[in-house]
Amino acid sequence: MRIEILCTGDEILTGKTINTNYAHMAQRLGEAGLEVVWGTTVGDDRASLVSAFQQAAARADAVIVNGGLGPTVDDLSQEVAAEAAGVPLVLHEEWLARMEAFYLRRNRVMPANNRKQAMLPQGCEFIDNPIGTACGFAVSIDKARFYFTPGVPREMKKMLDEQIMPRLLARAGTPGVTRLKRFHSFGIGESRADEMLSDIEAMAPGVKLGFQAHYPQLETKLALRGATTAELDATLAPLEAEVRKRLGNFIVAEDTASLESVVLDRLRSLGGSLAVAESFTGGGIAARLLNVAGAEALFRRGVVSRDAAQLAATVGVAGADFSPALAEQVARALRDQSGASHAVAVLVTLDEGADGMQIGGDINIGLADAGGAVVRQARLLGGRDWVRLGAVEMGLDSLRRRLLGLPVDERLDFERR
Amino acid sequence: MRIEILCTGDEILTGKTINTNYAHMAQRLGEAGLEVVWGTTVGDDRASLVSAFQQAAARADAVIVNGGLGPTVDDLSQEVAAEAAGVPLVLHEEWLARMEAFYLRRNRVMPANNRKQAMLPQGCEFIDNPIGTACGFAVSIDKARFYFTPGVPREMKKMLDEQIMPRLLARAGTPGVTRLKRFHSFGIGESRADEMLSDIEAMAPGVKLGFQAHYPQLETKLALRGATTAELDATLAPLEAEVRKRLGNFIVAEDTASLESVVLDRLRSLGGSLAVAESFTGGGIAARLLNVAGAEALFRRGVVSRDAAQLAATVGVAGADFSPALAEQVARALRDQSGASHAVAVLVTLDEGADGMQIGGDINIGLADAGGAVVRQARLLGGRDWVRLGAVEMGLDSLRRRLLGLPVDERLDFERR
Question: Domain total for chain B?
Fold first, then answer.
C-alpha cells in the first residue's frame, strides 16, 4: 500500500513552523510496517490544495492530510475535500452537539465560527477527536482513501494511533493492533546494539527492531502488530526479557520514563534526597532533574562552579583541581552540609585549545551516601558540547546505578581511557 | 515566480530525521521575497525521484532539490537529474581536482567512490561548495530551472545564501544582494511589536518586516534586498536606528549575539565576574551562561535549591520563604562569599496545584554589585514550563539591564502584577 502524507498550512509551507508532525507520522507508520512513499506540503491556498489532492489521489492508495480543520476562513480542508470528492458539505449534527457540550463544560458559549468544524463532506466516514474541536474524517477521491487529521500535534498523535493506523492496517490487509516498546540506554553505540540484538526479529514474526540515536542516549524500539492486545502482550513478554538481558545495566529507562525520572522515583522510594555539585556541566544536571514535576521535594541543593577552588570552598573543603579525590571529598562534604541522603559531584576538566572534535574532557564523578563514597573516572572526546552532554548523562547514570546497586564503572562504548 | 522545494532521502521521508532543511530554506527565501508554493519529499528511490522531478517541472518555475549528492550508491540526484534533462553524466574535471586537493590537505587519499560526486549532467551550471565535497549544479527540465544542493545543513545554508538566492533573484527579475537584520527582544509581545513598528516598511521600499516569537524572546527581522552591499548598508542604517529607538531597552541582543553572550561580554569588559543563586529555574540560568565559550572565566559560582531555607543556608543567611527581602540578602551574601563582582538571585514561588495555564509564579530577583543591591519583583502566569522559561530570561535580562545601567523594572507585556 502506497501512503502519502499531505501537510497543509502557510506556517508549514513558509518554514515558520518546522514540520515535526510529518516526521512523527512517517515514523509511527513505518514502525507499524506501513510505508510512506511521498510527502507533499502546500499552503492554505484553494488551488494548491485542489491540485495536491488530485495528484495525491493519482499517486497513492492512502493519503493522510494534516491541518486545515480549524474554525477560521483559511482552514479549507473540509471544503476542498468535498469538492475533490464531488459531494456537498453537510452538517454533522452529532459533532456540533459534541462541540457545544465541550464548550459548555468549560462554561463558555461556542463561538459561531466553530460550526464550520462540523461541516463535513456528505457520506464521509467520521473520525473521532476526543480531545479537540477538529474532528477527523475519511473520504475516497478516485481510488485513494483520504484521512483528514488536525494540525494540533497532541490531537493528531492520538487520532493517528487510535483511529487512522487501525484503518490503514485493515486496508493493507493486516488488521489488528500495534504496539511500540521503547528502551532508552546510555553507553552503547547503535552499531553495537544492532549486533547485540541482531536475532531478536527472528524470535517473533512481524516484530520490527529499530534504533534512534540521540546522543548521549540510544533508543531501541520493538514495533509489533497482532490481532489483539492480549496477543501483543504474549509476543512481547519474552522479547522484552531478552532485550533487558542483553542490554543489561545500560538500559536507563523504558517507554515514557526518563533517566532522570528513574533516578527520582528510586530516591523517592528509598525516602532519600539529593544534592549535586557540578563544574563544566554548568547546572545541566540540576536542570534535568528539576524539570521533572515533584523533583523539588527530593532535590535539596545544587552548587555550580567551573573553578575547583571555588567549588570546593562552597562546600567547605580545599581543592586546587578537579581530581578524583576532590570529587569524593566534595560529594561527602556536600552530603553532610545539605543533609541529603545522596550527593553526587561531577567534575570535568576540559582540554585546552579551540573547540573541535579533538577536544576532550576528563570526568571525575564522586557519589556519597550512607554506605560511603565511590568515584567514577572517565574520558570523553568530541568537542565541548559532546563532552558536556556526555558528562551530564554520566553523572545521572552513575547516580542511577548507585541507587539501584549496579556497578558504577561499566565501560561505555564512547569512552576513552 | 513559483518556487518548489524538493527534499530527497530515506531519512527525511521516513521521519527519522526532522526536516529542518526545508524550514530553513523556505524561511530564507520568504525573507528575500521569494515565495515557496510547494514542498515535496521523496526517498532515495529512482522511480519516485524521476516522477517528482517531472511533476515539479510541470508545476514550478524554479525547483530547489536538497540531498542525494553524496558518494554512495543510494545518492541518485545527479543521475536522475541527467535522465530528466535528457543528457548524459560527464566528469567535471575541475571539481574532481578540487576534491582531491581537499583530501590532500587533510593528509588523506580520496576514496574512489567520491569520484561519483564530480559526475554532473552535461552542460549543467556548476555551483560551488567551498566547504564540502558535494558541489551543487543547475539544469533546466522542461521550463523549470532545477538547483541541486547538498543535504548537510551547513553546506546547504551557505550555498543557498551565496549561490542559489542571487540566481533566483536574478531569475525573478530582481537581481542583487540580500541582507537579514535581526533584533532579539524580551518583554514585548508580537502584536505590540508589530504595532510599534508598523510604519517601518514604509520608510524604505523593498524592506520586509517580520517577527518570530519563540517564548520568552521575540525576534524582529528586517529583510532587505538591493543592488550592492553599500546600498544595503545605506538603506539599513536609519531603519536599524529607528527599530533600536522604538524597541529600546527591550532589545537584548542583535544578529548572532544572545542575551547571555551580551551579559558575559559586558561583564568581561568591566573586568567583573558573576555568581548566581537559583530556585525553581533549577540551574537553567547557570546552564545558559556556561554554554557560552569562555564563560568559565567569568562565572564564579552557582547555587541551586527549591527550598528557601536550604538556599539561604548555602550562602550563610537565614530565610524561610522566597521573599523580595531574601532575594536581596542572598544576592549580597553570595557576592561576598564568592568574591564575584556581581551576584544575582532568582527566587521563584510557584503556585500550588496541578499544572496548567492557570499556574503562575512569583519571581523575586535580587541583584548585588559594588553599587549596592536592587530587587525586581514580577508575576508570570501560564504553567510550570512557561514560568520557568520566563524566570530564566528575566534573571538574565535583569542582570543585563543592571550591567548596562538601564532600568531593571520596566514592565513586560506578559507580566501580571
Answer: 3
